[in-house]
Amino acid sequence: MGIFVVFEGPDGSGKSTACQAVYDHYRAQGLRVLHSREPGGTPIGEMIRQILLDPKNKAMGLRTEALLYAASRAQHVEEKIRPFLEEGGLVLSERYVFSSLVYQGMARGLGLEGVQAINDFAIQGVKADLTLYLDPGEASSFHRILDRDLDRLELEGEDFNQGVRAHYMVLAQQKRNEMTFIDATLPKDQVAQACIDAIEEKRREKK
Q: Under a CB-based contact definition with an 8 Å cutoff, are residues 84 and 91 in contact?
């Protein structure tokens, strides 16, 4: 089996930048590596992503939102993640189950138990080997996304984004053995290197 690495963090924490840098690093080494994202990662998942993030869908219910994220994830696991891991590859995913626990379970108030249950059904035992939490620190990272059109969740505003970070910290403390903290306030190259170092440690463990 391969190694499954997830990049987590609030909007603007630098997940995409770090994930791309790590992907480029391992591609240059000739490793079989997949860079994907959630929601999305597959044609069906990307269509679900458009529904989820379209600012016009203001009427979307909270449970509908949680179920759509889980549906996109189920397709992602079945079509991309599991087959790639079975072939011994390295999977890098921007977001996974922790995002749903934080955003829908905690920030949306749906509760961790129910959100965990629908995601357990979705992923069918495919869990991350390593979850990298990119922590933006006390300062807000929301300004980093203001130079683009904001999606439905980003339009919730800075207070919501700061609340998400606080929930990430609570969940990370509860699941310390499942999450590795990365200081996202460091320069981009140092953030990427910290991610690579953590992945290399995990690769050594799995040999």
A: yes
